[in-house]
Amino acid sequence: YITDQIGEISYEISPVSFYQVNPVQTEKLYNIGVDAAKITKNDVVFDLYCGIGTISLFMAKYAKKVYGVEIVDQAVEMAKENAKNVVKGVLGTLLAQQEEAYTLEVK
């Protein structure tokens, strides 16, 4: 895998993972998303098709909880690993596996 950073968070990216290739612009885009959605510490955010967790983990510091949902096993494993790298005590825990959907909770 390779490692890249968006904002304060470093991400491990596998060769088959989808990833925005311009992390500077990606951070700006994610900040616009946080502002547009008016995410606060009272909100629960769902990141559907979360991939390796870039949006989920980026938004975790703004929300009460963030759930990333993904069906690709390798992406779920990368999201779990990336959750371990998040700053400010954000923890990732695999919550549930229902059929082929996985949920990653970020507290």
Percentage beta strand:
25-35%
**Mean pLDDT rating:** 78
Distance between the amino and carboxyl termini: 26 Å
Number of helices: 3
Count of distinct strands: 6
Helicity range of the residues? 25-40%
Label the structural class: alpha+beta
Order of helices and strands: EEHEHEHEE
Unreliable runs: 87-101
Largest sheet: 4 strands, mixed
* Morphology call: globular
How large, in whole angstroms, is the Cα Rg? 13 Å
> How is the largest sheet built, in terms of strand order?
3-4-6-5
Element layout with pairings:
Layout: E1 2-6, E2 9-13, H1 23-37, E3 44-48, H2 54-59, E4 65-70, H3 73-84, E5 92-98, E6 101-106
Parallel strand pairs: 3-4
Antiparallel strand pairs: 1-2, 4-6, 5-6
Verbal overview:
31% of the residues lie in helices and 32% in strands. It has three helices and six strands; from the N terminus they run ββαβαβαββ. The chain has a four-stranded mixed β-sheet. Strands 1-2 form a two-stranded antiparallel sheet.
